[in-house]
Every structure is written in C-alpha cells, then in structure tokens.
Amino acid sequence: MAKRIVVIGGGFFGIWCANKLLATKKDYDITLISKSKFAYFLISSVRVSVENDTDRSLYPLTELVKEGIRIVQDEVMLMKEDSVELKQMGTLEFDALIIATGAKWAAPIGYTHQFGDDYQNYFANEHKKIEEAKHIVLIGGGYNNAELAGELHDRYKEELKKGSKKVTMIHSRQLMLPEDGFYAEKLRKRVTEFYQNETDVRLILGTRALISDEDPNTIVAGTTTIKADLVYHSIGVEASIPPHNFDNFTDAKGFIRVEDTFQCTAIPKGNVFAIGDVANFNYKGLVARRGWYAAVVHNVQRVLSDPDCPLDKLKKCDRKPYHITSIVSLGAYAGCGQLFTIPYFNYTVMLPEWFCRLQKSKDMGRRFAKWLFANG
Fold first, then answer.
1. Contact 79, 255 (CB under 8 A)
2. Is 145 part of any domain?
3. Are residues 280 and 251 located together in one domain of the fold?
4. What is the CA 90 to chain-centroid distance, rounded?
5. Are strands 3-8 and 28-34 parallel, antiparallel or unpaired?
6. Of the four listed, 1, 260, 299, 358, which is most buried by Cβ atoms within 10 Å?
C-alpha cells in the first residue's frame, strides 16, 4: 500500500518537497494542499505592488507541481498527528506531513493564504494606496523595507525630489538590515549609505517608532512627529500556521519548533515536518534551500521506511548564523550584495554592483521564477 504524504503550502518549499519526493519513484501517494491555486514568487514582491505588475510573479500550481501529485485547493481547519481536517474535503489521513505554509508577510507584500486567488485585486488596492499617499512611512529598516524603499525611490524619484511626495524610513539601529548575524556590517553600511547619499528617502536611524493611540498614521520617532498618509510595518515576520491540537508546538516567537532534522519537536512519532519561514530556523530565505529540502526529503523517506529510525541516520542542517550570500535590490537600477565573510580575517567579499543589478534588481529575478519553482 502506498505511503500517504501530505504537504501543506503551495510556496517554494511545499512545491520543492512534493516534486522531489515524487522524483524518488517510490510508492508514495502525495497530496499538496493550498488555499490558493497560485504560487507567489515572493522575491519580486516589493515591485509587484509599487508597479501593480503581477506578470511572472504568480503562477498556477498546475504549471509547477509535477504530474502525479494531487493538488487540493482547500483550507486546513485542524492538523492532527495522523490526519488533517479540510474545510471542504473533510478528513485526509497521512503517514507523513510536511508543513510549508510560510509566513504572514505584511502589506504591501501579502501572502497567498491572505488573498487566495484574488491577487490582482489585492495588489491593485495596495498600488492605489501607494499612488495616492503623499507621505509614506516605512517602520523597520529590515530586508523587505530596504528593498521597498528602493522601489518607491525609482517610481517617485521626481516627486521625492520636488517634495510633492515623501518617503520616510524609521529604523531602530544605526545601520539598515537586521542585526542578526546573517548580514555583514559592510553590506548594511552600503545599503544605508545608498539611501543617505543617492536618494531623497529620509532615514531616521537609531530610534524606535511609536504609533499614536488616537491615530495610527501619527508616528513619533524620538523628538520627531510625523503625520503619514500610509504606514507600512516590517518589523520581524509572523509564521502562518494552520490550526492544530498539538501542545508546545511553537516557540516564544510563534514559529514551529523543529529539530535540526526538520521534525516537529512536539510530535513524538517524528512523522510531522516543518520547513521554510514557518519553522524556527532563524534564517528566513532561500539561499540554504537545497540543503533544507534535501534533508526533509531524505528524512521523510527514512521515517516512512522505518518509524524507529535512529537520529544518526537522518540528515541535519546547521542553523548557526553566518554571513549568508545575499543581494539587496535598491530599485531596478541599483543593488548591493555580499558573497561570504572569510573566517578569522573578518573580511567580507562583496558582490559587484553590476552583478547585483543584472542578477536581481533589473527584473527581481522574475525571468527565472518558473524554473526556480519547478526545480529549486
């Protein structure tokens, strides 16, 4: 009898795990569950709303998921140790479960579980807000807002120069990007100096934003009070976790607790896995993807063939912070990135600006989106 594998989530990791498990040619019955029939190329997300251009940013799952995998468009109402309850389909039992539901990305980025199939209306509404706003305030100078500011700078360069439109970024650190061990100081400094020296985006650094209780568009940053028309928050990320009946399932930040094998800590059977932004790996992104999904695919196979499989037979992934290869788009015409930092010398090898522009900034990677979804 075929082993039943259920994958929840129609994003990168859900698609990759399902496709790679199918490619093992083992006797698996694989079902992928998603509330939306589309996959969202999140790498391009900050440009989608600013330009209201969804071209090559959303793809039907049927074009990405390999033939032989059942796609179920439904909503998970409850996860259990051996089954999931779906809103329309009812109970779906499994031998192994992979949770790859990602994160709840704040506006204007959004996420498929939020807008379902109505993505065009969602992005059109966000675009309208951006177009009509005279003063946009970005709270948090992390990765997403660093790229969003570049898109706003590109589209409204003349208005920003004239002062008819304003963009203000408030960040609690003196340098942009998270201070979490993944981004070298050299990269953070370059991103910060780009906005300080080459744009009319106003930076307020080293200060936390306080939002007025009376008016959510009134922001206090130190001694400065700002009246905004539109406020976008990008402080951390919230995991998108379907309802469940598991005890101690998440950590203090709300992410699913997983072992280095990606097995959910709260499930003793070891047959429930979580991968991607929903799991409590500190790094959120795709650079480490191949090692991650390879580990999950290997470990699912081992657990299905031997439920008592010892830990030393399972693949593990290192979750220690390091300066991971990264490119930060600063609009379509600028970008900067880091390759790696040489240990002991503490020297960060930076990527050339022309390479960053060509590889990412020019079209936000959309030219290889479909290939990336299908192949990883």
1. no
2. yes
3. yes
4. 29
5. parallel
6. 299
* 3-state SS assignment for residue 152: helix
Distance of CA 211 to the CA centre of its chain: 25
Cβ atoms < 10 Å from Cβ of 159: 15
Q: How far apart are the C-alpha atoms of 198 and 213, rounded to whole Å?
A: 35
**Residues 199, 338 within the same domain:** yes
Q: Which domain holds residue 148?
A: 119-236+321-375
The per-residue pLDDT for range 287-303, each reduced to its tens digit, is 777 788 999 999 999 99
The secondary structure element, H or E, covering residue 286 is none
Q: Which of 261, 279, 313 is the last residue of a domain?
A: 313
Phi-psi region of 177 (alpha: psi -120 to 50; beta: other; left: phi over 0): left
Q: Which amino acid is at 299?
A: N
Specify the number of domains making up the chain: 2
What CATH number did the domain enclosing 11 receive?
3.50.50.60
Residues 36-94: pLDDT tens digits? 999 999 999 999 999 999 999 999 999 999 999 999 999 999 999 999 999 999 999 99
DSSP alpha helices (H): ranges in 167-206? Answer: 185-198
Q: Residue 236 has which token pair? A: 């951390």
Q: Which phi and psi (to 5°) does residue 41 adopt?
A: -80, 90
